[in-house]
Design goal:
Blueprint lengths: L1 H15 L5 H15 L3 H9 L3 H13 L17 H4 L3 H9 L18 H10 L6 H10 L19 H17 L4 E6 L3 E2 L31 E9 L4 E7 L5 H19 L5 E6 L10 H14 L2 E6 L9 H14 L10
Parallel strand pairs: 1-5, 5-6
Antiparallel strand pairs: 1-3, 2-3, 3-4
Helix pairs in contact: 1-3, 2-3, 2-4, 3-4, 7-8, 10-11
């Protein structure tokens, strides 16, 4: 008879107990134990798979008739925090995250092994058994967060930087007010042609991704795509030529010529001057003689008086073409290998 009761109770507890909190489970177990009388505590404990002490506490709580306080556990109940059980844990973790000599060969951890999983493995090996999730919680409690690098250090600031920006701004306003074209020019990052992986994702049928090479090292003689852009500030339009022979002054001015013949002269039919804003480096750098020579040829053939204003060193990201034109190219090219110069 006792065996039958135990089986029935086990089925009941398997269905009911998962929906109760700890205190409610104790009270249910205690009530059943009292109903069975002598031997009921052991019977219920076996059927529920809990300790005799748990059932006894339930019986005692029912006998005391205490109302619920809103707490499931008594103050101080439950497992102790690892910080309390292992007082040296946090110090050991900080020693790994911030070694005295960062990056030195004798340091316990280098920059490449600072994942929470790796930290947990290192701590466990040093006698502090802990999981990756706990390591993450401890780091957050100590004021750490998962961060990438921050591009904030600008290096030496050119003493005339602000004056140059003000000068460029005044010239742009002067040209646009007079109906003269103002363009910003630059070269976007070169891209290798072929079945190489690129950043970003595109929609494809499930299980049918674009297959690319396992590595990103270009083969010898691999072709490259060199996008050179011309951004018309007043019209808010762009023109891009994609070359294959490198970032050269001849290619840069050829792109300007194509823009002028294809759009510029139609948009500004009465123009006599052209203002170009550009970075100080690359094919359109202020020291590149070929750039100046090619521009002189362009001025002769178009009849335009061409003025070039270079941005101060280290301020290429302030060039409007970076945000207004090149960002669209990055969006259009993402998740898709560039395999040909053909459109």
């Amino acid at each position: 008879m006792e065996r039958i009761n135990e089986v029935v109770l086990a089925e009941k507890f398997a269905v009911l107990l998962p929906h109760l909190d700890e205190r409610q489970r104790r009270l249910v177990l205690g009530a059943d134990a009292r109903a069975f009388g002598h031997g009921g505590i052991r019977l219920v404990a076996r059927a529920a798979g809990v300790s005799v002490d748990t059932v006894s506490r339930g019986v005692a709580e029912l006998g005391a008739g205490a109302a619920s306080t809103g707490r499931v556990r008594a103050p101080g109940g439950g497992r102790k925090a690892l910080r309390e059980k292992d007082p040296e844990l946090v110090a050991a973790l900080l020693a790994l995250v911030e070694p005295d000599q960062r990056g030195a060969p004798e340091s316990p951890l280098r920059w490449t092994v600072k994942s929470t999983r790796r930290l947990a493995e290192q701590l466990t090996a040093r006698g502090h058994p802990v999981g990756a999730d706990t390591v993450g919680g401890l780091l957050r409690a100590e004021g750490f967060s998962l961060q990438g690098t921050s591009r904030t250090t600008e290096g030496a600031r050119h003493p005339d930087r602000d004056d140059q920006f003000r000068y460029i701004n005044e010239r742009v306003k002067e040209f646009t007010a007079g109906g003269q074209p103002v363009v910003s020019v630059d070269t976007k990052k070169k891209e290798v042609l072929g079945d190489y992986a690129v950043a970003g994702r595109e929609w494809h049928r499930k299980g049918q991704p674009v297959r690319v090479r396992a590595h990103d090292f270009p083969e010898k003689g691999a072709q490259k795509a060199v996008p050179y852009g011309v951004y018309d500030l007043a019209a808010d339009t762009g023109w891009v030529s994609v070359g294959c022979d490198g970032d050269t002054a001849a290619f840069a001015v050829a792109t300007l010529r194509r823009w002028w013949d294809g759009e510029g002269r139609h948009r500004y039919p009465t123009a006599t001057r052209l203002l170009i804003t550009a970075d100080v480096g690359g094919a359109n750098g202020y020291r590149v003689r070929a750039w100046k020579k090619e521009l002189a040829d362009l001025a002769r053939t178009t009849g335009l008086q061409i003025t070039v204003c270079h941005f101060p060193p280290g301020t290429s990201k302030w060039n409007k073409i970076e945000h207004r034109l090149f960002s669209r190219i990055s969006t259009n090219w993402r998740g898709r290998p560039l395999t040909s110069h053909e459109v």
